[in-house]
Amino acid sequence: MAGGITSAIFAFVFACSIWCGWRSLKLAIDVIDAAADFLFKTKRLILVPILYFFVTLIVVFVWFGMFIAVISMNKIEPSSTIPQYKSITFKGELEKYAVWYMVFALIWLVSFVQYKTSFIV
């Protein structure tokens, strides 16, 4: 009985919120409908995210090459037990800051390309 009354109260509150926000809800539905009609009529717009996906891949590959160059400024020593394992010893604080700067640059560049794509669309 208590569960039924609680559900009825929540249903009544939900119905009141829909009734009070009906105008905003109708406007949002109309905007989404207009956007869907626009995307349906301009099919070449689908190529923009695909193109910028490849641009993002190029940015990541170039960044990776630069990141390897920054890491190679440090002392790299091979492991005696595991053949392919390498140990990286940072020379100083500057190299650590350069690595963190490179990580920040990757995040910033990928976000820039993503938001540029959203703006174009």
Q: What attributes characterize this protein structure?
A:
two-stranded antiparallel ribbon; 2 domains; single chain; mainly alpha; 121 residues
At a glance:
The chain has about 120 residues and is mostly helical.
Structure write-up:
This protein is mostly helical and 121 residues long. The protein has two domains: 1-41; 43-121, no CATH class. The protein is built from four helices and two strands; from the N terminus they run αααββα. It has a two-stranded antiparallel sheet. The radius of gyration is 27 Å and the shape is elongated. The mean pLDDT is 89.
Topology, element by element:
Blueprint: H1 2-20, H2 22-41, H3 47-71, E1 75-78, E2 86-89, H4 93-120
Antiparallel strand pairs: 1-2
Question: Into which percent range does the helicity of residues fall?
Answer: over 70%
> pLDDT below 50 for ≥5 consecutive residues: which ranges?
none
Spatial separation of the terminal alpha carbons:
52 Å
Order of helices and strands: HHHEEH
Q: Average pLDDT across residues?
A: 89
Proportion of residues in extended strands: 5-15%
- Which outline best applies? elongated
Tell me the total number of β-strands.
2
Overall structural class, as computed from helix and strand content, comes to: mainly alpha
Total domain modules: 2
Output the number of helix runs. 4
